[in-house]
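FW: tagging you since you asked about this chain on Friday. Here's the raw sequence from the shared folder, copied in full. Didn't touch anything.
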Amino acid sequence: PPSDDGRFWGADDKDSDGDDADDAIDVAIVGARPDAAERLFVVSSGIHGVEGYAGSAVQVACLRRLAARPPPPTACVVMVHAINAHGMRHSRRWSAAGVDLNRNYHPEAPEDAGLTGKQQQQPREGGPSEEAEAISLHEKVSAFLNPPAPDRFAVTFYALAAALVTRHGFEPLKAAIAGGQARWPDGLFYAGAAREPALEAVDAFLRRGMRSDSTDAAWRRAVHVDLHTGLGARGGDTLIVQTHDDAQCEEAQLLSEVGAADRLEVIAPGSGTTTKPTT
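HL: got it, structure written out here
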């Protein structure tokens, strides 16, 4: 649960190297009490630590706007700041354990798992056989992704990348690499072998800390926006929605058209990605 100053802690508030620095995850709640609200809007930042600085700036700007124009009486806005506080403080993408938290959202990852729970929850159209192909492809390109030493010649990297794209295709290669993996702890986009303490803390807060024991009512509407950087044009906003629901796609398109984002990507598992620049 949150402390008196609105913050809560993970299972261990110290780094693995014994550093006593503050790795708390800060939470700000604006508007109605979370256990009394009908609508909930959660904005989180810093799940990829180094991206937390831009995310923090967005959250501060949102709070300033909310101070001038509070949300409706039945709405609650929750800002979850610096989920990966260790990574943010050290300008690293990963957690202290070298885990990519954005690929760690799964209850448990067996040691022999090749893909993250994120992908398991959103299976490809081809089913288990296609999942297995992605695992195999990631293994085939592992040496390229994780070289034993830096390559002094960038041209070598680009030549090898072009060869892999030609051989395997861009989309299969992208899915196998960016989707994450749970086999190689020293590899790129490592999903971890179990849920990381920071995510356990966030999950505990969202599931239990925001609901009183006396209410069973569910929010009529809940939206969670997780802030990232590095995608799309510099200085532009991209709203990525992953859904099968046509109504949610239309709603996301409406948000982008009224200026909530400069670009919209709708990703429906099994049907590819549709990118719609706004006017």
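FW: The longest strand covers residues 25-31.
HL: agreed, and The beta strands are 7-8, 25-31, 39-44, 75-81, 221-226, 238-242, 263-267, 273-277.
FW: great, closing this out.
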